## 1
Amino acid sequence: DDFKRKEAWVEVTGDVDTGITEIQNVGATELKALPAGSLYPDWARSSFTSIAKGLGSGAHGIVDYEGQERVIETDEDAAGDLVFTPVVQETAETGSGNDVLRFFRGADVGDWLHKLFEARFNAKSEEEIDDVVNGIPGRLKRALFMQGKTEEEFVAVEELVANMLDSVVNSDVLPATDDFSAFQFNALASESRTNEMPFLLSVKNRRLTTPVLLETLKKVGLELEGDAVTRLTGYLTGAIDMVMFAQGKYWVVDWKSNFIGDGTAQSYSQEEMEKEIDRKHYRLQYVIYLLALKRHLISVAGVPKEEVWDHIAGAMYVFLRGVDADQTINENGKRNGIFIDCPREAVDALDKLLEGN
């Protein structure tokens, strides 16, 4: 399709060689339905999304997108969910430009932005990058959420998306250090990143339930609340937006399209992003993602277990609406729109818990 995804249906016409040369007539066969429920009730597949749905109102609007054995979580409050989201009131200060921000939001918009950034970072050459940027108008025209919009609204959204992509790609997101210059995504070589990295973590702990998970994480400072009792056995699965190698270490990167405050970059301070992360339980998400990265480096890259944290920088959550090219990294090494955390103790605790310890 437009985003070069492979999970498209293909219609086969004409004669097809099935490899079957003869069908034996074995007579009548009696068919009976299997008992209701799973054949393997203790062996299922869970994800951050399925766990978060049982953790209270903050998880509303998280939607599963299944395909090619992967799960992608959208970030926006889905239409119909009973979640309060502030609406910008037009004033002399805000101006009519914020009309665009009022309708350019929601689960469909969040999924569309995710796929746009996936396409941008799947591009390996300058020509492919130009194709993604120049293709924004065409992708918008085909988007369901843009149907019925005026020409003025279309142009405003096109400009908003182009500026968003340019700001995220060409702004400093990591400060300079003694060993490295400030990092921008435009400097990230294709061989230093993996997009939509799927993972499948084995859950050997047959007694693991959501209350046990929450209690364990609470002991290491990760406070989550929920009253759902769900068994978490079998596999824990998902897909990381991007894993990158920058400034000498590995990072988990996640694109977030959440609408905070009035939707402008000023609303995406460290404090406000942290509130949104707590509301949507994203700390649990990046603990799971960092565990997947940790196990991958140990089992695939051959990094010794006792040295693995020397190679992991942490999780970087990029709130796309909050990165403004006109803003810079402050004296504390932080900037609006970029949230970074690395809760090693929580990741290690989850690792042991999945193993049954």
Note: The longest helix spans residues 151-170.
## 2
Amino acid sequence: MSQTAREGGVFRFLRSSSGHGSHVNNAPRFRPDATVLGGNILSMLAAMGPFRRRGEQILADFGINGVVPDAWYPLAAYVGALHTIGEKMGPNTLYQIGRQIPNHVPMPPDIDTFPKVLASFGMAFDLNHRGGPPPGTTITFEQLSPRQGQITSGTPYPCDFDRGVITGFFQKLLRSSVAVQRREGTPCKAEGADTCTYVVTTPG
């Protein structure tokens, strides 16, 4: 379901499904029909540059072959491939893959201001996934100032990938530099939590 609420003068967007989420790095419970659009997977291969063949082999190990942009592929397999890439090639590779996402996937229309981009991640997730995410998936946001906001992501993706996606969205849609930092003292998926929280700042 999707909902927008106003709490204490701050708009929040929540996208969730019923049930209780399990930790991403402890085998999230994917719905059997959960799929991801091929453009997301192509962003992974594009970011790997000279190591593209290695990425294709990892995808093949998870049963994903011959990817095309407008086809749908098992979400569990794609997430598994990303975790394997993170283990073999490090967190920066996951970050760079995430940054490529906006260059390969459908984007929400008319997103051209900081508040609109901040609120767009739930919509973008819906455009690029179908069949239902793992139970408990959420994306929330809070605007802290005209050029600073906070996003809490409970997607099934690795946290460095999420950070790259957030960075790529702001860079592409606002044509601006952006700083995306994990909020200290908050839970992190890499440490076994269900969510990661990021503070997003663009120059004034």
Note: The longest helix spans residues 159-174.
